[in-house]
Each structure stands twice: as C-alpha cells, then as structure tokens.
Amino acid sequence: MVEILAARKQQVLEKGKDVFTIECEKPSTAGSVSQRACVFCGSRVVLYPIADAVHLIHGPIGCAAYTWELRGSLSSGPELHRLSFSTDLRENDVIYGGEKKLYAALKELIGAYKPNAAFVYCTCIIGLIGDDVEAVCAKVEKEVGIPVIPVHSEGFKGTKKDGYKAACEAVFKLTGKDDITPVPKFSINILGEFNLAGETWIIKDYYKRMGVNVASCITGDGRVAEIGRAHRAKLNVVQCSGSMTYLAKMMEEKYGIPYIRVSYFGIEDMSKALYDVAEFFKDDKILDNTRELVKSEVNKLLPKLTEYRKDLEGKKAGVYVGGSFKAFSMVKALRHLGMETVVVGSQTGSPEDYDYLKEITNEGTIILDDTNPLELSGFILEKGADLLIGGVKERPIAYKMGIGFCDHNHERKEALAGYDGMLNFAREVHTSVTSPVWKYSPARIKAAETARVAKERLV
Amino acid sequence: MLLRHTPKEIVERSALTINPAKTCQPVGAMYAALGIHRCLPHSHGSQGCCAYHRSALTRHYAEPIMGSTSSFTEGASVFGGQSNMLESINNIFTLYDPDIIAVNTTCLSEVIGDDLKQIINRAIVDNKIPPGKTVMFASTPSFKGSHVTGYANMLTAMVQNFAEKTGAKNNYVTLLPSFIEPSDMSEIKHIAAEMGVQYIMYPDTSGVVNAPMDGKFHMYPKGGTPKELIRASGDSRSAIALGRVGTFQAAQLLDTKCKVKTDILDLPIGITATDAFVDTLRKTAGVTVPESINTERGQLVDVLCDKAQYVYGKKVSLMGDPDTLYGLVQFCKDAGMRILHVVTGTPAGAKWDRRMKELTGEGTIVKSGAQADLFYLHQLLQNDRPDLLFGNTYCKYISRDMDIPLIRTAFPIYDRIGHSYVPITGYRGGLNLLIKVLDILMERQDRDAPEEKFELVM
Q1: Which of A28, A94, A444 lies nearest to residue B71, judging by beta carbons?
Q2: How far apart (Å, rounded) are the C-alpha atoms in residues B13 and B101?
Q3: A399–B213 CB contact, under 8 Å
Q4: What is the pTM of this model?
Q5: What's the CA gap between B401 and B1, in Å, rounded?
Q6: Contact at 8 Å (CB) between B389 and B21?
C-alpha cells in the first residue's frame, strides 16, 4: 500500500477504480520531496539553446552554477549558451542593490563576446530587492545596439510553467525584427524543440525532404536573426506544448500565424506531425513527398523494432516526465515495443492532459501529478514495472530498485525524436531492461523465486 | 571550440563571474545533513533550489538524494515562510518519518527574514515535533560563502543541536571531517579503527551516498552517524577536526560548548598531512601506531620512490575546494611537482590565502573568492601551461581546449565514477592518487614519444 499525503490524495488516480478528475496545476505541498523546479528553471531551459546570445544570470552564484550546461542542447555554430555568466551577488549587493553590478557585467560581457542578444534572468532575490532590471537593460540596449532582454523568472513567482511563459515573452521580443531576408513560401517555425542530442537536425531533415522550409526553430540550435524573421513563416508547429503554446498564441495574435500541436516521439505522433504540416500547405508535391517519406522511414524502422520487441513483449513501464504531452507519446511508443505503461505522471500536466492519459492507458494504470520518490517507487513496486522513464532524479531510484531506466529529459545522450529516435529509444529500453546486471538484484532474485515456487505448485 | 573566446590577456573584472569555481551554500549543507542517520535535509525556500541541489548531488553520486522543500510561492515570499515551514514539519514527520529534519535556508527565506529558531520553537510549542525527533537548521544563503561554508555551517549546527556535555567523559575521540567524499570518510575511519581508537565521526556520508544496491529504494540508507553518537561527542576525550575551512567553526564550538580539547588539522591528503593526523590520533588516544598503518605508509613512499622521476618537476595547476586543495598541493609537493596555479571560488579567507602561499612558495598564483573562476583559470593556463590539471568536471572544457590531462578531484564530478568509492585521503588514498597521476602522465609520455623513444619498460 503506497502512502499518500492527505493534501495529495486527489493528485493520484487509478484508472478504472477512481472516477475523479485529477487535481493539478497547483503548488507542491510544503514538505514534500517534490521532483519539480522553479520559475527560473522554466525560463532557463527554454531559452538556453539560443546559442549566439549571452545568458546572464542576475543573482547569487547558485542559480548560475546549477543551470550551467543544464541540458544537452547542441549548436551547429556558436556555443555562447554553454558558458555560465553570473553577477554573483554578495551580501552587500543584496543590501545596496545589484543594478550597478548588472550594468557593469552586461557591458563587460557584451564587449568581450559580441553576442547578437543578451538575456538577463531575474532570480528570486532580484524580485525581493527590487532591482530595476528593465531600466538597466534598456540603457545597455541603447548603448550597445543589440537586444538586451530581461527575463522575469523570479523563482518563487509560481511554478516551472510560469517560467516557460516568461521565456516566451522574452523570445517574443526578438520576433518581427527582419522583414528583408527572403523567407520561402512553404515555411514553418518549430516551437518547443530544443535540439537535445541533435534532435532538431533530424526533424529539420524530414521537413526538408517534404519540401518545407524551417524558418526558425525556437529554441533548438537557435539564432537571434532567425527568430527575427520567424513572424514571416506560415505556420507554427508546437512540439513541447507545455512550454511554447503561449508563444504560439502571441504570434497568432500579432502576426496572424496559426499553430498546431505535435509530438516528435513515437511512430504515430511523428507521422501525424509531418502529415499535419503537409495538409496545412495543401500542396500535392509536399503531400506526395510526405507519404513517400513516412512510408520509407516506417518500412525501414518496423523490422528493426520487431527484433527488440521479441524480448520486451509483456514488460511493464513507469513514466514520469516533465511535460504531459511527452507522456502521451511514451505510452504509445512503448506499446510498439510490446510494453504496457502501468504508472504514468508528469510535473506540469493539465486536467485535460490527465483525462487523455486515462483514455489511452489500460485499466489499473496509476496516473500521478507532481509525485515524490516514495510514492513513485511504491507504485513501481506495486505494479511490477521493469522500466522507468524519467529524468536526473529518477534514474538512481530505478537502478536501486533493480529495474531499467531511460532518460527522456535533459540528460539523454541519444536523440529520441523522429523515426531514428524511435529506434534509439527501442535500443535504449532494450539494453536497459535486458541488461544482465539485474540478475544480481536481490529483488529480482526474490521475484523469480516466488514465480518458480508458484509454478511448481500449479504442477 | 567551446572556449575559443577566452582571451589570454587578463583584465580585472569587477562585476562578472564566468564559469564559477564554486556553488552555493545549501548544497553543502544538504550533503553534510545526509551524513546523519535517518536525517532528511529540508530546503526552506522555493522549489527550484531544492531541485537543483538534489540534481547536483544525484549527478555527482549517482544515488537517489532526498530533500524536501517548503515550496514557497509568492504569498510566502510576501507574508513570510512560517506557515509553509510548520506545514512542512507536519507533513514530513507524517509521511517520511525521519529522526531529524535538517533545514537549510535559501537566499529567499534569508532576505525576507524568516527566523528559523522562532519557527522551530513555535513547532515545539504547538506539539508538531513528535517525541525524540529533532528539527535543526543552518543559515545558508547563496549570496555568502560557497558549498564548503554551507557544509561548515551545517556541521556547526550539528554540534550546536546535539553535542552535550554531561560531565561523564567517555573514551571516544571525535573526528570532524571537512567536505570530502564518502570514500574519504571511510578511509579516515579505517585509520582510526586500525589504530584501535574508539571514535565518533560526523558527518559520515559513507553508506549513504555510496550505498549498496539491494533491490530496494531506501529513503534513509543504512549509513550516517546516529544522533546519539553526535550527542556523546560532547563528552568525548578529545576531538580532531580535519580540514580547516570546513570544520574550524564546529571544532571551536565543540571546544567552547563542551570543553572538548580539539586539534584542528589539515585534511589527511598526502604523506605529511596523514602523518600529522596519525600522530595526533596516537597522542590524543594514547595508542601506538600499528604495523599495518606503517605498511600502508611504506607502500606509498615505495611507489613514490619507484616512479618519482615521472612526476618530479612536472608543472601542475589546481582548482577545487580550499581544504582539499591544501592537501593536494602538499601531495604534489611531496612528489616534487611545481605548483603553477591554485584557484578556489570559495572565499576561503586571507588566512587560507596566506597559508597556501606559504606552502606553494613564491611564483605560484593563488586566488580565492570573487572572480576566482574557471574563465580566470583558463586565462592563467594560457599564459603558463601546466602538465597536469586537478579540478572538477567543468575543467574538462579547459582540458580539451588546451590538451592538458585532468584529474577529477573536486566537486562536482558529473562525468566519471569512482570518486565516492576510491579515497584520496590517508596513505592508501595517497597511493590511489599517485597511481592515477602516474597513469595519466606516463600514458601521456607514451602517446607523445617519438618512435625511437617509445619503450616497453618505464
């Protein structure tokens, strides 16, 4: 029996048994071992991949240190985003204000690195001491002639989701700058794709083969100039809807660009993402290309998946990820490997998201919002999962319990998007679940023993 | 190339830290707290801090790192965090049932002025703390010190909250280690045990952040010092603090609060410092040094003699935490290496700077605190290139950029395993370290040797 805090009772649901709608989008219970982060984290992860901008963290050192090389977003050119810049506020700055320091830091940075834009992240402390970051940024912008954009990401001002919003507002300020550079007729922007392990490049290649131009990817392998002409694309394709729908809505309102939500994970979702774009342009050539592409990729992929499926058939998985849209794709992708999802949850899902999860999972599946290690490990044990999909803090929990793990968050080393990504995913899951190391797990030995005894009794 | 922008010319920076060689206090406090048995670290502030600290320690140790948070929202930031803290105490004891909650403060709760002492008293008055359980705290804002001072503050809080002088002296020697790996904590215990010394050591993260895999998730692994022992340290016959920056404050408090005679030494890294530790242990506990310890020492000296020519005269630069750096520099000097640069982001104080300078001698650049960051170190290295670099994982960029081999000895290490299992303290740790240095330098020599000088026996 898994113990759940009274205040969290409505955030955990067993499909088929509980009928309520999950309570979510609320602050974590005080005192819980939450796997969530803060507003600043939300802004930082979204803006991070813009590689020709400097990202200056205005605050004490910790915030900068922990988000240095936060996620493996790759760049095909400049790599300014991978350095860690901080105003490193000390006690005196907290008392007398950090504006002068911010000004000096910005000037030093911009002078030394010649970036195309600068982002200034406001951390908890800035919100409290009340530095006029807007004014400092405006002043520097005027002096140096590049966009200097404050990101209002004070950690306590909400959840990680509010940080996404602050990031969207910051990116939005970079749009609409360039009306001259030619942008082809069939152009889209990809929103909420962060080029982890080079995934943006895989996706861009698919669109290219369809005959569709990607005007900008926000923010994977991002460049300031590309975002500057993003307003002239015909369609916004939102991959990570949790983080970027807000930007899509702002762009729709101001520039009249419609948007669609997609996912690049798993076979169905990837194919649908491509078809949706093709259908939007209503161009026969593009449609033909898309059919051809999907057919050849899927034909290439399926026989290979079958190989992995042989060993994975009937295994069970737990999924706990940041955004719930990703969780949908995971449930479907696992099914292609013959695996059933028995526990699934996210840090930031909405009521509709959880309803949809209820729809696509089997009876008895545990659905969780903002869980903690005690609950998560309890349900994994109770449901007998063989695999956990999650992020940094979930990995060692899975290993300690003697089950496989797949990182579907910042630390993934393999590209998991697209058809190539699906194959990588299958390989990673297969390697982890079938690893010989688990035979040394006392829990596994015990489970095997119990199964053997039960079988003998039947005979 | 990631670091191609780093210019050679060093200009004094006033306001900007680039690629920090430190991180903030709460993570050190959290690490120290994990060294108490059945203790749950708690972060009083917004969720992000706690998530970052857990991620950082999880990456470093590849272990599940527990820690709860007060989950501040805007309301708490305006009206104070008392109700969040009280609710946390209640929820934590109800659900996670630790023996101790060790609270670290964040910038946010410090600046709004939450008085943890008062809040904890409130919790006691309101009967929110079950009998036999403790809530303790350390003040650890991120705008002061570094992860090392955070560790020091939590260690001091342990003495403050638990160490008790009853008047009846026991036979224990109390050992207070600075911020070191669980493997190093084990090694210090090994030396004490080998010498037949009855000891109490805290914090002790061995068995907590390098716990064995047993097929279960444990909220509280078996390791960590039980609070009864921390209490008994107040009656111990004497104490030895190892690593001055990380333990000075706690050692002094144990001395003044409980009148325990305390020796403050450097971390036992390398021959000289380990000798000092063993000798102090011998005197204070009234024991003799057993043959086994002499053997360990002899083996280290032997290997150093065997291969001294490969390290002698080699140039080395180091970054890391102040106490470890002092030991490492000592170690390098024992091997006849030339120290070019020593950099720590921790504001270790003028006294540390002076002692380090005395140790290294003229001609070595020593920098601690503000603007002592990896950008600066990279600049230094461009001006005077070492043969070997000691530092944390982030130094790998410099190492790659300049093709200088790196030995990972500082916090954090995200890309290699072993640091939590293989010690660098004690004679055995010294041997590990020496072998590592020799391996990397001799490998290098092999790699760079022209065909006619590439040889089988080295």
Answers
A1: A28
A2: 40
A3: yes
A4: 0.95
A5: 7
A6: no
